[in-house]
Amino acid sequence: MQKQYLLTNRSRGSILLPAMKSNKTSSSHKTVSEHSPVENQLLMVTEIGGLVKDLDMLVISSPQDELYNRLIKRTFDITFSSLVIVFVLSWLYPIIALLIKLESKGPVIFRQERSGKHNESFWCLKFRSMHVNEESHHKQASRNDNRITKIGSFLRRTSLDEFPQFLNVLIGDMSIVGPRPHMLKHTEQYRDVVDNYMARHFLKPGITGWAQINGYRGETTALDAMVKRVQHDIWYLENWSALLDIKIIFSTAYQVLIGDKNAF
To answer: Which residues, including other chains, have CB under 8 Å from residue 13's CB and lie 6 or more apart?
Structure first.
């Protein structure tokens, strides 16, 4: 039988999650009280030898616990991503590839290992928006980052750099909507200091998400910004619906059209 974890919440009960794999070799963690600067947040999932410390809350379910809801989401993902790949990416890819190659040396597609569902890593695809550099796999892009190329700046402002991730969606590593996937380094960094950080790995990561349309996208320069992002991810987990996904997609498209100050 598959092991399960309980993610507990002081005010709302608990969420039942499948066991998550850890990329750490060490099994020790500090307690939430030692780490977290934020009060009244979700308790942190703590894993020691496959055991969980906090099991004292009632269990509530995410809508995605239901097979029917998972089928709805997966069917939508396959349909939507297939349409984008056939009718948009098929002609957009060669144009962007040419522009990238004309400006700088290196591959057209940037592949980065990121944390996926159940904390299993996968290769996240993006159009390369930076000069090839040694920091790309552990340093987030920042405003006025000199690593970003001219075409890369345009791709990032318009979110066109994310379009190869529709391939990730089609093969099943990602979803159209869900928590954004983080670098492996950031997963290991934040899991010990942000309450309930690992709960966001209950779902497949998304191209866009509830946190992103509410202003929590891009570089995280302060711990509080990551705390807020995780809170929004958990809210999405607990309140998922097909209509909510559609709302997030339309909101994302609108923000791309008017411009997002956090897209750089």
So the answer is: 57, 58, 59, 60
Q: Which of 172, 181, 237 is nearest to 210 (CA)?
A: 237
Instruction: Say if pTM beats, i.e. exceeds, 0.70.
Output: yes
- The dihedrals phi and psi of 68, each to the nearest 5 degrees, come to -60, -45
Does 22 fall in a domain? no
3-state secondary structure of 158: coil
56: left (phi over 0), alpha (psi -120 to 50) or beta: alpha
* Tens of pLDDT, residues 159-218: 999 999 999 999 999 999 999 999 999 899 898 888 888 888 889 999 999 999 999 987
Instruction: Determine, yes or no, domain membership for 27.
Output: no
Q: Which residue has the tokens 């492996």?
A: 184
Structural domain range at position 185: 66-264
Helix, strand, or coil here: 209? coil
CB 143 within 8 A of CB 153: no
Q: Give the 3-state DSSP-derived string for 129-157, with helices as H, strands as E and coil as C.
A: CECCCCCCCCCCCCCCCCCECHHHHHHHH
- The Cα 34–Cα 32 span in angstroms is 5
**CA dist., res. 163 & res. 32, Å (int):** 37
The number of folded domains in the chain is 1
Q: Which residue from 53, 52, 51, 69 is spatially nearest to 61, judged by alpha carbons?
A: 69
Contacts 24+ apart (CB under 8 A), 29-35: 29/192, 30/192, 32/195, 35/192, 35/193
Residues facing 177 on adjacent strands: 208
User: What span, in angstroms and rounded, lies between the C-alpha atoms of 120 and 198?
Assistant: 12
Does residue 23 lie within any of the structural domains?
A: no
For residue 112, the SS3 value is strand
Whether residue 210 is contained in a domain is answered as yes
